[in-house]
């Protein structure tokens, strides 16, 4: 037998002590098997690298997607008792807003809810706001969170320096600011004496009263991370507005109050307000939604689909690696037969080969984690506007455990069939010179693995084909405008420098005139909301017709624009004319709006009222324009009106330039 071992080139090392120890000392045999697997793989580095690379791609993709899912769906919100934090919404009239179940609040209704509701510890309004920072070098735009009284109590936030806003500072005259930890570090040099300093925001001095801790974030329910915080400061007139729904609200449930109880209470209050103010509140209900559900509602299904897709990729990698391991085991069948002849049981052979697969899988998992870390590090900034809580995505302990579990499961799935088949190899056939190879059973096994790879690949290819088809359809859809060679920029005017409508009008007129004079600029205009950004949805009343209750009124998307905008975006005027600088209060209607309001009749020369803006001001329709997709490429173009007025100029617009 010793001569046979020598003649076959087998080493005595693998059978001692592992072949003799059996199952009497599992840690020793496992250690010996791991060392032997490492030495064996070291003698075939190309094979080992190929397997590790395949597994690294599969496990890395799964770890990356799970990292996102972990941050968005699994990790608790970074607040004490986060399950008690809820969002408050109106439920709009379904006849006016079909399919919509959540709508922004009107200020007056919110303050009535706040006065009458008993299910909440605290309630607060909030919204985003932009400021221009001056006085410290080049002016720059700051992204701010404007929050009502009680906001920081709801999230149980305590500043690392200073204090939060007092209730008496929720006024238009309050000029106090709280800094994010990042802003304090990057723009204030982490100065410990920052409290009491002033920042010049929109040409007005704001006193720093606090600095938030580094782990404080509410980016998941604001469009982007906030750099500073200011009081919401609604005026008395703004607080009394009941028909305009433009505020967001958050609240904290009282201890012992269930979600259904709070929702029922708000519904009762909404019914009472509907009876008290039928002109504004007819058909408007109320609802309460857990903050976590509101944050993830648009991405939960997408993340689960992505995890399923990368799971299929990992299964394909398992089948691929299983085939490679099976082929490797066939090449080692004489070595395995010699070990069996020297006393190694089938269980020991099975264990040895499975350990080798696990070693490869763990190496692939480690490499996959490095790939996932690099991918997330590079892609987090790209995800910030697409995925909530993107700033919280990281490789934490839960992700490491997931990667470890995926690696072990992958090693078992990839190695179990080759190990089982190798353990059943016939000793005499394997030891024969020029034996008959792997036989029919081995061939069937390899074919089965290939079939599994192909089947899983077909599933992925079908999914990819559907995605490509959808992408192709979106690329060829007629959006109603031409975005090619169009540059845009947002401009917000500080109220202290441009206080009057005439000052703001003069600024926008002069700016557009100078932009049109630039070399290479073919056209220029401005609008409040660009296409695909959504916008204000308002009821509209045709002059001469009775004004219906809000729940029965037709609604349109409303855009404020300047002359030249339609030409810049290549939105054709189908009938009538475009707006001009000489106009005072005119508007254009989209083809869909014209059909909604007048059917087949001619709308040119008709007059309409937008009651949320003014019940007394009527505007003349001077033209019909093509339909434009305003919300998304996959949704139908909504009825839209574009108005222009010199009497109510805007404090902020988006400039568009065609080059």
Quick take:
The protein is of the alpha+beta class and 659 residues long. Helix content is 44%, strand content 19%. Strands 13, 14, 15, 16, 17, 18, 19 and 20 form an 8-stranded mixed sheet that branches.
Question: How is this structure best described in words?
Answer:
A hairpin with an 8-residue loop joins strand 18 and strand 19. This protein starts with a helix and ends with a strand. The protein has 659 residues and is an alpha+beta fold.
| Helix vs. strand class | alpha+beta
Number of helices: 20
Number of domains: 3
As a percent range, the share of helical residues equals 40-55%
What summary fits the major beta sheet? 8 strands, mixed
- Kindly provide the radius of gyration, computed on alpha-carbon positions and rounded to a whole number of angstroms: 34 Å
What is the strand content? 15-25%
Distance between the termini: 86 Å
How would you state the average pLDDT, rounded? 82
What's the β-strand tally? 21
Principal-axes geometry comes out as: elongated
Low-confidence stretches: 1-23
Features:
single chain; 659 residues; alpha+beta; eight-stranded mixed β-sheet; six-stranded mixed barrel; 21 strands; disordered N terminus
Provide the fold topology.
Blueprint (H helix, E strand, L loop, with lengths): L1 H7 L9 H4 L4 H17 L2 H30 L10 E7 L15 H10 L3 E15 L5 E8 L3 H4 L6 E2 L13 E4 L1 H8 L9 E4 L2 E8 L16 E4 L4 H4 L8 E6 L5 H18 L1 H4 L3 E6 H6 L3 H32 L1 H9 L4 H38 L13 H27 L3 H5 L7 H38 L9 E7 L8 H16 L6 E5 L8 E4 L1 E2 L12 E6 L4 H4 L4 E4 L8 E6 H8 L8 E3 L8 E8 L14 E6 L6 E7 L1
Parallel strand pairs: 3-8, 5-7, 15-20, 17-19
Antiparallel strand pairs: 1-9, 1-10, 2-3, 2-6, 2-9, 4-7, 5-8, 6-7, 11-21, 12-21, 13-15, 14-18, 16-19, 17-20, 18-19
